[in-house]
Structure formats: structure tokens, C-alpha cells
TrEMBL record:
<keyword id="KW-0734">Signal transduction inhibitor</keyword>
<dbReference type="InterPro" id="IPR016137">
    <property type="entry name" value="RGS"/>
</dbReference>
<dbReference type="Pfam" id="PF00615">
    <property type="entry name" value="RGS"/>
</dbReference>
<keyword id="KW-1003">Cell membrane</keyword>
<dbReference type="InterPro" id="IPR044926">
    <property type="entry name" value="RGS_subdomain_2"/>
</dbReference>
<dbReference type="GO" id="GO:0030425">
    <property type="term" value="C:dendrite"/>
</dbReference>
<keyword id="KW-0966">Cell projection</keyword>
<dbReference type="InterPro" id="IPR036305">
    <property type="entry name" value="RGS_sf"/>
</dbReference>
<dbReference type="GO" id="GO:0005886">
    <property type="term" value="C:plasma membrane"/>
</dbReference>
<keyword id="KW-0539">Nucleus</keyword>
<protein>
    <recommendedName>
        <fullName>Regulator of G-protein signaling 8</fullName>
    </recommendedName>
</protein>
<feature type="domain" description="RGS">
    <location>
        <begin position="56"/>
        <end position="172"/>
    </location>
</feature>
<dbReference type="InterPro" id="IPR024066">
    <property type="entry name" value="RGS_subdom1/3"/>
</dbReference>
<dbReference type="GO" id="GO:0005634">
    <property type="term" value="C:nucleus"/>
</dbReference>
<keyword id="KW-0472">Membrane</keyword>
<dbReference type="GO" id="GO:0043204">
    <property type="term" value="C:perikaryon"/>
</dbReference>
<dbReference type="GO" id="GO:0009968">
    <property type="term" value="P:negative regulation of signal transduction"/>
</dbReference>
Length: 180
């Protein structure tokens, strides 16, 4: 009897693992990725704007809807922590209060840099250690090297895949169809 239960359990586990490992790259409903009022947002997004996202990674990141679409894509790849870390660093650089600087630096370090961080970014040991030392006496530039590494990783790896992704091509198609 026990021998019969094991294969069933394994089959169920394989099915569950298969569902978890399947990465959907398609979005038919873009309301999930667009901030604010999604239906109006999609109507406002022009094909020209969405096409410009392919000009450079900076153009994509500087556009509200481009950022949202890229975030949605990274979620399908289970790597949205990279973008979240980069955004947290951008926000950190705007900190003007010395009292808040230390607590914000510690929070970012614990969330993204520390070895067992819940949303640990993929950086090398030397960068991690340099950042650890920098956070001991935080300045507005204490995450610069780590942020640069993560930015470069996204620009060279995730961004080209995003431009080839079904999320992006479907979004472009939807904006073009609206014109016809």
C-alpha cells in the first residue's frame, strides 16, 4: 500500500513543481502592469513612446509605464529584486536627513545585500563586503558600486530579453491596434 502512495505523491509534486517553474511571458491583460488607472493609462501610451523604450535602458527606466512593464517582466523571471534594489538606491540618494540616512541604509542592506536577505541581489563577494563597510558610515554613495553592478546586470541581461519578450511585443501590438 505504501509503495502505491509514493508514485502518486511524486506525480503530484512534479505537477506542482512544474507549475512553479513555468514562467509565463505573456500578458493579455495589461491592466495588471500599468500604474494608476490602467485602462486610461494604456489608452494614453502611444506606440511611439513604447517603441522608444528600445532606444536605451535609461529611456525605459525613466518612463512610468516602461518601468511598470519591465517590473512585470522581471516578475515572470523571478528577478524583480534587482529593479526594486535599484529603485531603493535611487530613493536613498534623495535622503537629506542624516538621521534617516543610517536607518535607510541599514534597511536596504538587510533587504537586498546581506547574505540571507529576503530579496538578495546577485553581486560578488567583494562588492558585498565593500557595501557592508560603507553602510557602517553611510553616505549618499554607499550603495553606488552595488547599484552599478545590478544596473549593468539588468541592462546586459534582462533588458535585451525584455525587448524580445511577449510582454513587450504584445504591448506594442496593442498600442498599434488602437490606432487602426
Amino acid at each position: 500500500m505504501a509503495a502505491l502512495l509514493i508514485p502518486r505523491r511524486n506525480r503530484g509534486m512534479r505537477t506542482r513543481l512544474g507549475c512553479l517553474s513555468h514562467k509565463s511571458d505573456s500578458y493579455n491583460d495589461f491592466t495588471a502592469i500599468l500604474p494608476d488607472k490602467p485602462n486610461r493609462a494604456l489608452k494614453r501610451l502611444s506606440t511611439e513612446e513604447a517603441t522608444r523604450w528600445a532606444d536605451s535602458f535609461d529611456v525605459l527606466l525613466s518612463h512610468k509605464y516602461g518601468l511598470a512593464a519591465f517590473r512585470a517582466f522581471l516578475k515572470t523571471e523571478f528577478s524583480e529584486e534587482n529593479l526594486e534594489f535599484w529603485l531603493a538606491c535611487e530613493d536613498f540618494k534623495k535622503t537629506r536627513s542624516a538621521a534617516k540616512l543610517a536607518s535607510k541604509a541599514q534597511r536596504i542592506f538587510e533587504e537586498f545585500i546581506d547574505v540571507q536577505a529576503p530579496r538578495e541581489v546577485n553581486i560578488d563577494f567583494q562588492t558585498r563586503e565593500l557595501t557592508r563597510r560603507n553602510v557602517q558610515e553611510p553616505s549618499l554613495s554607499c550603495f553606488d558600486q552595488a547599484q552599478g553592478k545590478v544596473y549593468s546586470l539588468m541592462e546586459k541581461d534582462s533588458y535585451p530579453r525584455f525587448l524580445r519578450s511577449k510582454i513587450y511585443t504584445d504591448l506594442l501590438s496593442q498600442t498599434q491596434r488602437r490606432l487602426s
